[in-house]
């Protein structure tokens, strides 16, 4: 069903303020092509990541990222070179977006959900490193604010 992608996107309340990125190593995957076509028709800005020049997916994207990796060692196995290259591109995109949106301070992702012990420990370390304070004070700040950003900002504001 070429309309399934748009049905799936609608569950996330996609609007013209969003950007949708379609991923298809071949550039012809009907689900992805259909989703990007619907995005274009709805005025939603879109991009694509593919591994083939002049792929149909590019016809429905505002921006195309084409990763020319050459043929796969095992024919039909796009998860190897194509999939790895696409994952690297997605990592670069998501990192850039997080920085551009302001979720990073001094190379630290400060707007994370602190929903497990490991992330809380990481948050404490970030606060300690950024603010040059001891672990006990960092833990108290994180417990009080429940946010790495707010904890760091509280100390920066106190020092003014």
What does this structure look like?
This protein is mostly helical. It is built from six helices and five strands; from the N terminus they run αβαββαββααα. The protein has helices at 4-10, 30-42, 81-100, 117-131, 135-145, 148-158; strands at residues 19-23, 45-50, 63-66, 104-105, 108-109.
Question: What can be said about this structure in brief?
Answer:
By secondary structure, the protein is mainly alpha-helical. The protein has helices at 4-10, 30-42, 81-100, 117-131, 135-145, 148-158; strands at 19-23, 45-50, 63-66, 104-105, 108-109.
Write the layout of secondary structure elements.
Layout: H1 4-10, E1 19-23, H2 30-42, E2 45-50, E3 63-66, H3 81-100, E4 104-105, E5 108-109, H4 117-131, H5 135-145, H6 148-158
Parallel strand pairs: 1-2, 2-3
Antiparallel strand pairs: 4-5
Query: What is the straight-line distance between the termini?
Result: 59 Å
The strand count comes to 5
User: Can you tell me the overall shape?
Assistant: elongated
Order of the strands making up the biggest sheet? 1-2-3
Query: How large is the radius of gyration?
Result: 21 Å
Q: Helical stretch count?
A: 6
Low confidence ranges: none
Features:
single chain; 160 residues; mainly alpha; three-stranded parallel β-sheet; two-stranded antiparallel ribbon; 6 helices; 5 strands; 12% strand; elongated
């Amino acid at each position: 069903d070429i309309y399934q992608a748009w049905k799936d996107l609608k569950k996330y309340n996609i609007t013209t303020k969003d950007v949708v990125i379609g991923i298809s190593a071949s550039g012809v995957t009907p689900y992805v092509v259909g989703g990007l076509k619907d995005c274009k028709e709805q005025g939603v800005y879109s991009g694509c990541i593919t591994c083939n020049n002049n792929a149909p997916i590019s016809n429905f994207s505002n921006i195309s990222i084409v990763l020319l990796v050459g043929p796969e060692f095992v024919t039909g196995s796009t998860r190897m070179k194509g999939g790895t290259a696409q994952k690297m591109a997605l990592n670069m995109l998501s990192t850039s977006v997080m920085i551009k949106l302001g979720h990073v301070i001094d190379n630290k992702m400060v707007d994370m959900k602190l929903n497990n012990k490991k992330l809380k420990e990481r948050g404490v370390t970030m606060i300690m490193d950024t603010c040059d304070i001891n672990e006990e004070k960092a833990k108290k700040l994180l417990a009080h604010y429940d946010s790495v950003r707010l904890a760091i900002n509280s100390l920066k504001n106190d020092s003014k």
